Amino acid sequence: MDNSLMQAQARRKKRNSRLAAYALVLPAFTVVMLIVAYPIVNSFIRSFTVRGQAGFTLENYRYFFTTPRELANILYTFYVVVITALLSTVIAYAFALYLRFVKTKASRLISKLYLIPRFIPGMVAVYAVIVVVKDTGVINRLSLLLGLDVRPAMMFNTTGLVFMNLWFNIPFSTMLIVSSLSGIPDAVVESARDVGAGKLRVFFSMILPLSIKDVMVAATFVFMGNVGSFTTAYLIMGSTNPKMLGISLFDQFTRYGNMERAATISVIMFMICSVSAVVYIYTNLKERGWEKR
Q1: Could you tell me if residue 61 is inside a domain?
Q2: CB 109 within 8 A of CB 151
């Protein structure tokens, strides 16, 4: 009897502890559901409705995927984001290798300064770059002093938009990749060189496999962070066509007041972001497969 009583008390204590844990988590969970989950679900449901019509419909998706202008916006956004993610990752990786494995005063100084762009407000940074690269900007004025007329032609085109995206994303990607490369002991690299492995062999056989996961994380964050970008795209591109989806969503929401189509664009951006999520999950699963071997 005493044993069964003790077991009942233990079960009651365990249940009370679990309930207490749930009670502590409940406020944060409620906030997440109200601020994050509810808007997502609401946008998804609203994307299948049309103002003035009852029931679910695919009319909004049909509009965006069959109207040439709207389809061009989707493809253009995907193109810009992919180019930004690829260039940011490649440049940041090369930069991170330099900061990690080159031991000079210059590399140590750069390692303390390369994150400064992350602390500059986005709008301030974009305007500062515009002042330099626009056709009547600093570069053009300096070239006129030398008898030239250099016009960078980086306003209202994809080149300027990608350049500005790189300005923001390379420091962030470099920070993530440098953190990964810092976990590779110098002794491992030096031992491989001692047995005759060349720099390329060391890189492809040791450094790249050990850092590929964090490289994919950096690429994923850059990809997702630029899908819904608005400030940079709006200031660089204006209202030219094709336009980024963030600007298109802004137009649908403010200029046309069409909440259903704005919700549809939100879902489409989520679908595009899912592409990078799939790549990231696949990389993690593949890495676990290597570890099991």
Answers
A1: yes
A2: no
* Average confidence (pLDDT) over 254-258: 86
Give tens-digit pLDDT for 36-62.
Answer: 788 888 889 999 998 777 788 899 999
Supply the CATH number for residue 155's domain: 1.10.3720.10
Average pLDDT, the chain: 84
Q: Is residue 33 part of a domain?
A: no
Q: Quickly tell me which residue has 């040439």 as its tokens.
A: 68
Contact 96, 174 (CB under 8 A): yes
Q: What's the number of CA atoms in the CB half-sphere (13 Å) around residue 276?
A: 22
Summarize pLDDT for 106-137 with one digit per residue, the tens. Answer: 888 888 888 887 788 888 888 888 888 888 88
Give yes or no for a contact between 117 and 125, defined as CB atoms under 8 angstroms apart. Answer: yes
Q: Would residue 185 count as lying in a domain?
A: yes
Q: Rounded to the nearest 5°, which phi and psi values hold at 56?
A: -85, 145
CA distances from 2 to 5, 7, 8, 13, 130 (A): 5, 9, 10, 16, 80
The answer on pLDDT for 292 being more than 60 is no
Percent of the residues in the chain that have a pLDDT greater than 70, as a whole number: 95
How far apart CA 182 and CA 60 sit, in angstroms, is 48
CA distances for 59 relative to 48, 69, 117, 261, angstroms: 7, 16, 43, 10
